[in-house]
Structure formats: C-alpha cells, structure tokens
Amino acid sequence: MSPDHTSLAGKVAIVTGSGRGLGLAYALELARQGASIVVNDVDEEATSAAIEQIARAGGNAVAVVAPVGPTANADALVAAALESFGRLDILVTNAGVLRDTVLWKMTDDDFDTVIGVHLRGTFTCVRAAATHFRENGVPGRIICIGSPTGQRGNFGQTNYAAAKSGIVGMVRTWALELKRAGIAVNAVIPVAATAMTATVPYFAAAVEADAAGEPMPDFYRHDLGFGTADDVAGLVAYLASDAAEISGQAIGIGGDRVQLWSHPEPVVTGYREGGWSYEALADELPTLLEGGLQSVGESFPPLPEALQRPRPSA
Ligand SMILES: NC(=O)c1ccc[n+]([C@@H]2O[C@H](COP(=O)([O-])OP(=O)(O)OC[C@H]3O[C@@H](n4cnc5c(N)ncnc54)[C@H](O)[C@@H]3O)[C@@H](O)[C@H]2O)c1
C-alpha cells in the first residue's frame, strides 16, 4: 500500500448514490487515493455539492443525475466515465432507499421501489461495467454494498432484506463468472451514522456526538462497530485498489471494527438410505437439528444508561 495516497492514481470510479452519506465518503476517499469519480445521485443539489467538495479536496469528478435501476442509466454511467476520463476501473454500487414496514403492511410499491434501486440497480450497473471490463481487458474492481439486514434479517425490512441478501448472492455468482477476466467483486457490509440511521433511537447518542464534532463513544465504535461514514470509506478504496486480490467476499466494517462474514453452508448433515419420508423426518429431524438451529436477526447489547436518550415523540 502506498503511503502517499496514490494507490488509485489514473483510475476512474463510478459511485452510485454518492451525493451524500456513505457514497459521498467513498467518492471522497477514492478521489483522495487519486481516482477520478463519476458521482451519481437522484438529488441534483447534493450531486453538485459533492462535485464541489471533491474538487475542493483536489479531485476530479463529473455528475450523472439519474436513478439507478434502468439499464439505460447504467449504460449512461459507464459512458460518462469513458467520455469524461477515457476509462473505467472501479464501480461501487451504493445507491439506496428504505421503505420500512412489517410484511403485512408492505405495499407492492414499497417492495418494488427498494428492489428496483438496490437489487436491479446493482444488477444493471454491474452488468454494464463488467461488460466494459471484459471487452477491454480491464481487471476491474466491483464493490457492492450489502447490509447486516441482508445477512441476518431484520424486523420491518422484508424488501431491504431481499435486496441486500440478493446483492451478496449476486456477488458470489459474479466472483465466479468474472474470475477468468481478472475482475474482483466483493460486498461491503457497512454500518455508519448517516441519514438512514440518524433516526434510530439506539444510535441517538452516537449521532449527537458526531454532529457536535466529537468522537463517538467507545461503546458504539468498538462494541457495536458503529462509527462515521469515513470509517467505512478506507475499505472501499482498499478493495478498489490493485493491492486487494480477494474476490467473492463479504466484509463488514464500522467504527473501529472490520469483519469477514461467512457465506451460508450446511451446518448439520444427515443421511438415510432410501431418502427422507415425512414419517422419518418427524421421527429423526428434531434430534438431528438439535444444537444446530440458527438464530435470526442481529442482537444488540443493552444500551449503557449514560447513552440512553428519550425517544422522539411521534
Ligand atoms: N448507514 C448505514 O448504517 C448502512 C448500513 C447498511 C447498509 N447501508 C447501505 O449503504 C448505502 C448508502 O446508505 P446511506 O446510509 O449513505 O444512505 P443515504 O440515504 O444517506 O444515501 C443514499 C443515497 O442514495 C441516493 N439514491 C437513492 N435512490 C437512488 C437511485 N435510484 N439512484 C441513484 N441514487 C439514489 C440518495 O439520494 C442518497 O444520496 C445504501 O445502499 C444502504 O442500504 C447503510
């Protein structure tokens, strides 16, 4: 790793949803490492502000204001990289929206919107970038953003869990399909204080400290792996660099913590000659599965009293 922040010099990156939040932090860090950036967002004002911020920090960036999801917009992102900077090396699929509600209240539109931005947006953008990489012999780097919800499930997030676990499933598949072309595809599972997490009461004391320009309490940074967007950005830049040769991995990061997530694999295996009838299962499955049953959802430690904040009134 070069200590002089030139690990991505001469490279070009697309970061979707980079007008604010984590995407902006990724764009800034990729630029700091020397890459030119295609900033994409649906929020025109945020996009212009992001371009200015990157320029002020000495970087190069162009804007594409368009929603990810449709194929034409994915193609437009690749075209913008080629037209503005003459090449494309890195894609970060980060754009996201939430439409949280429990299953029985979730509308078709809630479901389709989240799937359209996260899952379809990731698919169309990666297809466009990977096609360019393969056709031009570019050993590209693709970083797709997952979520703890996709890994573990979460109350009120049917649509988001489907999209985010789907993204990690696609990453595993793409790591296989793109290996021969020398293209690496990894998932980052971030946790950070952004507009998405700012309203969660459990994180209120951390968000409050961050807004006041103070370091977040250790409980958040260390025990929960919850920090700022900048804490996540280094991993995205690292995975975008030639230094990272890994592919098909899901790496969690937040605050002071970095983690490698496992991929699902069988944890209990049983055999029965002639196969497993209903009767045989009723007889033997409970004992076979005992001790191997999996937990669902994330479990958080109780919030220390000093960090508890009154819930905002509805
Ligand atoms: N904040 C966290 O702790 C956390 C945890 C896990 C995963 N994530 C994921 O990280 C990514 C960024 O989240 P964030 O917390 O920075 O959220 P954010 O809401 O601050 O930023 C998301 C950005 O995406 C943009 N966007 C929305 N729809 C778009 C579309 N169709 N096309 C282009 N841009 C679009 C938004 O305008 C916004 O600027 C998301 O994929 C999110 O699911 C965040």
From TrEMBL:
Residues 11-194 form the Ketoreductase domain. It comes from the Bacteria. The keyword Lyase does not apply. Keywords: Oxidoreductase. Coiled coil: none annotated. Pfam families: adh_short. PROSITE patterns: ADH_SHORT. Residues 294-314 are annotated as: Disordered. Belongs to the short-chain dehydrogenases/reductases (SDR) family. This is SDR family NAD(P)-dependent oxidoreductase.
